[in-house]
Sequence to fold (212 residues):
Amino acid sequence: MRNSANCQPFDCAQGRLPTLRLRSGQAANPSTALRAGCQLTTGIVLAGGTSRRMGRDKRRLRPWGEGGPTLLEHCVHVVGQVCAEVLVVLNDAPAWPQLPARPVADVYPDGGALGGLYSGLAAATHDYALVVACDMPLLNPALLGAMLDLPRDYEALVPRSPRPGLARNRMDVEPLHAIYHKNCLPHLEANGEHGVLWRVLQRHVARHVHVG
Fold:
């Protein structure tokens, strides 16, 4: 499970935007951060994976005990605190009838995170979407709210880890704890079902926020 960027494609004349630094305790008043941008943001939880590495459906794990929510229910709840609508990208919606979110079928069933992001972003009501994976038990609504509160002069806002190797990709970024604009859709679609999300970000000007 996971612990828990201005991406203006092909507009390189402006150069790479400055890196922002944000700490989880930055917001002195979390409720203020949570309100900012909420009405203009769709939340997307990616839950279409097959859990091959774990060997069981990680969405149904209950880290807080049998009386607590499933991991997917928890992520939907947290995202719902900071977003006007919540979508869940998955391919077995009938198995989750009580989930308080709009189900979205994965356009690329075997397309991994990139395909799930494309599917959710295409179905989103709002231009900006906060995207998280369904395996993040430590999602912090204050941190998410602080990210949403940043000026929206970007097309993708992606956290970068201060510790190399923690994010498990060469850019040390967490693309599934990020905010995307619908303008990213053509570039996601161009990479189809076999693309790798962090490589898509690598090819374009990106804005990163350091979290640590």
